[in-house]
Amino acid sequence: MPHSGRIPLRVVLRTNKLLECRACEKSRSAINWEAGTTAIGISPLAEAVVIAAAITHATWNAIAKGVKDKILVFLWLNAAIAVMGAMGILVFGLPLAKSIPFVVTSALIQVIYNFTLLSSYRYGDLNRVYPLARGMAPLLVSVGAFIFAGERLSAGEIVGVVVIAAGLVSLVELRTLSGRDERKALLLATATGLTIASYSLVDGIGVRRSGSPWAYAALLFCAQGIVIAVTLAVLQKRKGSLLIAAGWKLGIAAGALSYLAYAAILWAQDHTPLAVVSALRETSVVAAAVIGTIYLKEPMGRSRLVASLVVAGGAVILVTNGLGHI
Question: How many CA atoms lie within 13 A of 99 on its CB side?
């Protein structure tokens, strides 16, 4: 019997049904991931991006620490990220409307974080216990991601997060502090740790609703940078000429590094468990210790070396277990 060139009706119906099933499955997967109920391992690319972002984060913090006038550096840093954010909006557009509340909330939290961090660098106390703030974040994000995003880590990933957090907290040197200084340092470390965990969790959930991590980052940095830069400019008592002349080069360099580092983190959070990203990101403390030893001539010390090895071991555990889920 010659072929008529017409496709049998039953084949068409069966093909349509198969396509509908695949579309439904894809839709359900997207909805579940947006809600955070689907957890996947970290890919080699995401791993490399997060670790590179951690090193970049440590670099801009080292720049901020090494400058005498911290207010001006933070002013220019935030002015730079505001301009970069505005340019990003022109290139990538705005994120989806359902992510805007997360952008606003995160921007407000990061304003608090910036001023807490600025206070720590001005008074110097938090420099000794800053690892406590960074070490708190992965554990708090793990709990928050489980409660608010439904993320469940494997046993190996939990071990990796705990090991990294323990290594960071072991860097705390409270024995060198006493009385008022110790209380101030602990309060600043705790406040900073809470803000880090809070904006990490908010951004991790918000970026998955944004449609584009780059658009989300652009709007976030534009809003945050404008608020902080204007506030610091008002608080700064210097006249316009001195304000323009002082610290702008290092501030802009630090701002560019800050923007790139956190935009990369947002990209990773878009498709990687939040606690895993947070833990790997906080290895920036180890990178900062290495930068401080090499460029700022700060002593490494045996305890810092051991803690760095512990954190590195936790990162290996995380990455190894994460890759097993891909």
Answer: 26
Yes or no: say if 167 and 307 are a contact pair by the CB < 8 Å rule.
Answer: yes
In tens, the pLDDT along 247-293 reads: 678 888 888 988 999 999 999 998 888 888 888 887 777 777 777 77
| Six token digits for residue 257 | 């590094």
Going by C-alpha positions, the residue among 189, 195, 211, 198 that lies closest to residue 274 is 198
CB 131 within 8 A of CB 285: yes
Which candidate, 267, 39, 263, 53, places its Cα nearest to that of 145? 39
In order, the DSSP letters of 236-260 are: --S-HHHHHHSSHHHHHHHHHHHHH
One-letter-per-residue 3-state SS of 50-86 = HHHHHHHHHHHHHHHHHCCCHHHHHHHHHHHHHHHHH
| Sequence-ordered list of residues with C-beta below 8 angstroms from that of 311, at least 6 positions apart, any chain | 163, 164, 167, 168, 283, 285, 286
- Structure tokens of 95? 């994120």
* CA 167 distance to own-chain centroid: 19
> Domain residue spans in the chain?
41-323
DSSP class of residue 325? T
- How far is the C-alpha of 225 from the C-alpha of 128, rounded, in Å? 27
pLDDT tops 70 at residue 25: no
Residues 131, 132, 137, 143, CA torsion sign: positive
